[in-house]
Each structure stands twice: as structure tokens, then as C-alpha cells.
Amino acid sequence: MGFLDTLLGRSKPVKPDLDRIFGLSTAAITLEAATGFTPTGLGSVCFRAAEGGAFARLQRDVQELLDADEGPKVEISTDSYGYTWLLAKHSPEELPDLVTDLHAVNATLESGGFGPHLLCSLAGFRGPDGQRLALVYLYKRGTFYPFAPLPADKRDNALELQVRGAVGADLAFEDDLARWFPVWGAPGL
Q1: 128, exposed or middle or buried, with CB in 10 Å at 0-12, 13-18, 19+?
Q2: Which of 109, 128, 142, 153 could form a disulfide with 114 if both were Cys (CB 3.0 to 4.6 A apart)?
Q3: CB-based burial of residue 140 (10 Å sphere; 0-12 exposed, 13-18 middle, 19+ buried)?
Q4: What is the pLDDT of residues 64-104, one digit of tens each?
């Protein structure tokens, strides 16, 4: 960052650290002990699909890589904003495998030159009373935040803050609460 950037209050964007995604495995243990929330085995990666054969081929390769084991465990969908969601499915006990899949998708897109198209990744959790929760990784910020949806497009802010307090030592949390974007209807939530 140069002198002029400092003078004008501009800052360099944070470089994404995809290895932070692996912290979800540790955070899940802490989360369950503190709040009773357990993994659902569902997780997703959200990105803006690019036009062209190179991106389509890369997306197909990612899907084939994740589907290689015992049949299809990946679904691809597009939301109303035009973002593509890749949903990975595992059994709830296989959170480390799910986290590895999420990392692989992000790393593959990034190494293919499509890092700027990545938006976020999330892992789903369910509380003892059925409450849904996601730990969301913001690719461009390199940070996490919790998202706890309630019916009628509301969110449980108190639970989100409780989760940040419970697992804040395990994950790099987004300090700017205005960046805790709702991901209504996200696959895996």
C-alpha cells in the first residue's frame, strides 16, 4: 500500500486464506459443546458462474471430482440473483470430509483463475430444537460469520452473537457486523 492510499484512506483487500476453512472441524466440536448445534453434513460454495468453455469444463471437473466416491453427492443450482451454488452432501459425522470438499472446490476455482468469482462457502448445523445455523466463510474477506435464519425472513441475532462468542477462538470472525449478510434459502442451510 502506498503513501497516497494511506492518505486517502484506501486499504488493500485481504487476501483469502482458504486454509481457514479447515478450522470448521475444530469449531464444530466447540459449537456442539457450547450450544448443542451439530453438523448436518451439508455445505455449499457460492460463486458467480463465468461464461465460456473453460469455466464450464472446470465446473464439470469439480462436480466429477466430488461425485467420484459412492454416487452423486453434489448438486448445482442457481439462485434468483444469478449466483451458482454447489451443494456437497455427507453424513453428519463426516464434517472433516465435507470441509475438505469445500476447500477443494474453492481451491480449484481459485487456481483456475476464477477466484474473483467466489462469494462464500458455508457449513450447515442444526440445534437441539431444530433451529438452523450456518457458519459462512466470506472468500474476499477471509473471515467467518454465523447466520441463523428464522421463519418469515428474520434472523436470530442473539444466537449469532452467542455462536461468535462460543467459537470466536477457533475461527477468524468478521468484525464488521454489517458484512454478516443473510444467505436466505442457501443450499445446505
Answers
A1: exposed
A2: 109
A3: middle
A4: 777 766 655 788 888 999 898 999 999 999 999 999 999 98
